[in-house]
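Section 4.2 – Deliverable D4.2 (structural model, holo form)

The reporting period included a commitment to supply a predicted holo structure for the target in complex with phosphoric acid mono(formamide)ester. Inputs used:
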Amino acid sequence: HRHLLGIEQLNQQDITTLLDLADKYAELNRQPEKHGDALRGLTQINMFFENSTRTQASFEIAGKRLGADVMNMAMQASSIKKGETLIDTAMTLNAMHPDLLVVRHPQSGAVDLLAQKVNCAVLNAGDGRHEHPTQALLDALTIRRAKGRLHRLSIAICGDIAHSRVARSNIMLLGKMENRIRLIGPPTLMPSQVADFGVEVFDDMAEGLRDVDVVMMLRLQRERMDGGFIPSEREYFHRYGLDAQKLGAAREDAIVMHPGPMNRGVEIDGTLADDINRSVIQDQVEMGVAVRMAAMDLLAQNQRAARSAVAS
Ligand code: CP
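Output (structure tokens):
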């Protein structure tokens, strides 16, 4: 692969190869001396047109740990504010010969479009409601390390599925790895094409969580609700918020996940989120750096191979 635009383009082998390498980087990241040289001499530009804490910080750390020259474009201070288009901005940066472009954008499809215009590898750091591939990969690595496998697990994804690129990428990845997926949430927050996903759908947490191995909670994404259904937080927590009592329906060893940013007391009880016996939320953040190191390492290897094929 030349780019990492979505889980849709990956097969089981691609996913396993990436997670195996990420596992090695996860071990490196726990050493006092964390540096590798897989990206030495390469230039990585991070372009975030939408807010981010975890994704931007981990892509920056991942690039620096592997020796890349990393630049974070301050998009709020860029010439986008003067009317320059996304494509003109990308072409301008492309002329500076970057090797890796990491892009987050509020519009679905914007990152794919940009990838067609530049000469370097593009990594999708989240585009609208479409895909967030490195999030699904870090979730998969977290599950594989906690459960010892990434197949034949029963996994519940709960809450605002309709507006979630995290849910879309996870449904594709976990489906490709042959897991059973349940979606739980209010019908108004289910995507209209849910019948095509090959998943079970529930409106009731007690029913949907019964005997699952993994519970993945999602934030209510109000910024993408464009005036439609916005539930009251109290009522939403009562019906769909995860707490110790609702988690009681899942397997005794079920793990609790959340991609962040989380809203405590809305989709998840704060005490449960902090319970290290059940919650792997901090592990997800840790695995985020390892997965992004692996993704950029593999794309850089592909880029070197393609460049030497052209040269020879
Ligand atoms: N999970 C995630 O994408 O978090 P950020 O929006 O903080 O990057």
